[in-house]
């Protein structure tokens, strides 16, 4: 049976609005797939560290990651 490779944000509707807000906030900076991956990584990181991942916490973590990523890309130019 094939492994399910879709991001966990697709499986949990409570994180869809987080992806939507951050995709809008970072449109023109990051592709939607990058935002989705950052939200997914933030969710897993929050679960690993705190044992739970609320949408608010995941959004804050993902936003910080996206901001740092944008700064890194800007420095490369």
Overview of this protein structure:
Residues 1-7 have low confidence and may be disordered. This protein has helices at residues 8-11, 16-25, 32-50, 55-76. The chain starts with 7 loop residues before the first helix and ends with a helix. The protein is globular. Helix 3 packs across helix 4 (55-76). With 77 residues, it is mainly alpha-helical. It has one domain (23-76). It is built from 4 helices and no strands.
Compose a concise summary of this entry:
By secondary structure, the protein is mainly α.
Structural descriptors:
mainly alpha, 71% helix, globular, disordered N terminus
Global structural class: mainly alpha
| Uncertain parts | 1-7
Strand segment tally: 0
The amount of beta strand, in percent, is under 5%
Taken from the alpha-carbon principal axes, the silhouette is: globular
What would you report as the Rg, rounded to the nearest angstrom? 13 Å
- Major beta sheet summary: none
**Can you give the mean pLDDT?**
88
| H/E series | HHHH
Number of domains: 1
Strand-helix topology:
Layout: H1 8-11, H2 16-25, H3 32-50, H4 55-76
Helix pairs in contact: 2-3, 3-4
């Amino acid at each position: 049976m094939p492994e399910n490779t879709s991001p966990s944000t697709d499986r949990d509707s409570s994180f869809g609005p987080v992806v939507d807000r951050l995709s809008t906030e970072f449109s023109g900076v990051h592709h939607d797939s990058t935002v989705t991956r950052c939200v997914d990584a933030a969710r897993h990181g929050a679960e690993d560290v705190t044992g739970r991942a609320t949408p608010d916490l995941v959004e804050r973590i993902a936003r910080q990651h996206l901001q740092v990523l944008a700064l890194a890309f800007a420095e490369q130019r």
